[in-house]
Write a structure and sequence with these properties.
The protein has seven helices and 14 strands. It has 261 residues and is α+β, with helices and mostly antiparallel strands. The chain folds into two domains: 3-136, 2-Layer Sandwich (Fructose-1,6-Bisphosphatase, Chain A, domain 1); 145-260, D-Maltodextrin-Binding Protein, domain 2. The strands form three sheets. It has a seven-stranded mixed β-sheet. It has a five-stranded mixed β-sheet with strand order 11-10-12-14-13, sandwiched between helices. Bound molecules: D-MYO-inositol-1-phosphate and calcium ion (CA) (2 copies). One calcium ion (CA) binds at residues 81, 84, 184, 208.
Length: 261
């Protein structure tokens, strides 16, 4: 298996152990914004991941959410979310993960996402398939939005400006339901292994999506933005799906955007 992916997996497991340990202790929470939380565990996890990546791949760039990376312009760049789902973590809801993705010239090529409470390790490298705890995973066979379970998330910054509640409402009326689980990297992995049939969100960052994108695509899924255009890391919106419901989701999203004008 891919050398980079192997290392990402090892580091994700190591950082996951830090999170699991922190999850069982009283938490020190501070605020980066109105409801944007950060804990000691975010910082400890990030310090470990960044130190390991710097040591192993000194020529690679690193972008890490809590600012510990080095925004190097490099062919290979790691995008690290040391704790995706901080709000869940802080409230004792066991839905959070470490996400470590690698992009080559801006294109995601490998990623590992680890939920240490459920002991679920999702991993993929470009051209080598997607795996959950070593078992091959694939997206769902669901053909219609009406029989889909879909997911979204809401930003913690500028949330009063987000129109996503309209999308949440409309997709709720047109599907089996919309989940809001609070960890975008895990939402992408849930599409990859067929738990969700589609996931959309506005305003995600490269550390939320780089690993998950490879995992979805290698599981046979489809990634675009909500206009159906290619998704670029850090772009304004993302849609991940099993591919079969992608067009229908895009059509509904276009209708919602039109009605809002
Ligand atoms: C957040 C989670 C959440 C999503 C937010 C993200 P964080 O990441 O992924 O599900 O809705 O947009 O910022 O802050 O917990 O790493
Ligand atoms: Ca995140
Ligand atoms: Ca985070």
């Amino acid at each position: 298996m891919n050398e980079y992916l192997n290392r990402a997996i090892e580091i994700a497991r190591e950082a996951g152990a830090i999170l699991r340990e922190g999850f069982n202790r009283p938490k020190q929470i501070s605020y980066k914004g109105e409801v944007d939380l950060v804990t000691e565990s975010d910082k400890r996890s990030e310090a470990l991941v960044v130190a390991r990546l710097r040591n192993d791949f000194p020529d690679h760039g690193i972008v890490a959410e809590e600012g510990g990376g080095a925004q190097a312009v490099a062919k290979y760049c790691w995008h690290v979310d040391p704790l995706d789902g901080t709000t869940n973590f802080a409230h004792g809801y066991p839905c959070f993960a470490v996400s470590i993705g690698l992009a080559e010239n801006g294109h995601p090529i490998a990623g590992a996402v680890f939920n240490p409470v459920y002991d679920e390790l999702f991993a993929a490298a470009r051209g080598e398939g997607a795996y959950l705890n070593g078992e091959r995973i694939r997206v769902s066979p669901v053909e219609k939005l009406a029989t889909s379970l879909v997911a979204t998330g809401f930003p913690t910054h500028q949330r009063k400006k987000s129109a996503n509640i309209n999308y949440y409402w409309q997709f709720t009326l047109r599907s089996h339901g919309v989940r809001r689980d609070g960890a975008a990297a895990l939402d992408l992995c849930a599409v990859a292994c067929g738990r969700f049939d589609a996931f959309w969100e506005f305003g995600l960052k490269s550390w939320d999506t780089t690993a998950g994108i490879v995992i979805v695509e290698e599981a046979g899924g489809c990634i675009t933005d909500l206009q159906g255009q290619p998704y670029h890391l850090g772009g304004p919106s993302i849609l991940a799906s099993n591919g079969r419901v992608h067009r229908e989701v895009l059509e509904v999203a276009a209708g919602i955007a039109k009605d809002a004008q």
